[in-house]
Design brief:
alpha/beta, 254 residues, eight-stranded mixed beta sheet
Length: 254
Amino acid sequence: HYATVYGTKKFYRNMKNAIVTGGTKGIGLAISKMLLQEDFFVTITYAQNGLAAESCRESLNSISENYEIVKADQSSKLEMQAFVNHILTTKKSVDCLVCNAGATLRKSLLETSNEDWEHTMLVNVNSNVYLIRDLYSLIPHSSRIIFIGSLMAIHPHSTSLAYGVTKSALHALAKNLVKSFEDTGTTVNVIAPGFVETEWQKGKSRYIRNSIYGKTAIKRFADVEEIADAVKFCIHNAFLNGSVIEISGGYSYT
């Protein structure tokens, strides 16, 4: 099984390498752009949406040619193994890994099937464990591992049980991985966004949006660039480690 790779013009083997999972749109795309501006060669994954991948390519070309877009669905063990093989054979290091890809599930406990639960756990938690384990040999000292968690791991939501629990597990994973990278200078942190202006939010009615604004001190959703700025902070601050940085605009503070 071989990884499907789009958009690569050349590999820069002397550059620092970053991976952004689920990086072709929304928060992931903003992070990918930021990393290009920080002079990383960026490998960006996506699951299914080829149109978003093409749009991402067009957007990134105006910034830099130092990227590739790879189809790697985190619910597919075969695709993820192909992705790992691709990285092992083409990169000398993984200096920054941003685990952004995620699956949501808006079902209550009684509506959630075994398959629903296992799929959400695989995408949001297990696949990230396997990815870090399998790329461990390429992660040099003083690297950065950053998870995109969620405010729903902190403030539970009744219609997103699987999502909230798996994001909580992701937060715990980051804190536990700190011990795996002890004395290496590599840091592991979590960004936990609240409500962000992404494609996921476009379907929300004005009534629901106003309800969320009413619970948020800043009275708006975050811009994706504000989340990317927090990721940049994690990259540049070498003492930040094992932290969950909540970016919620003051949610529940009204």
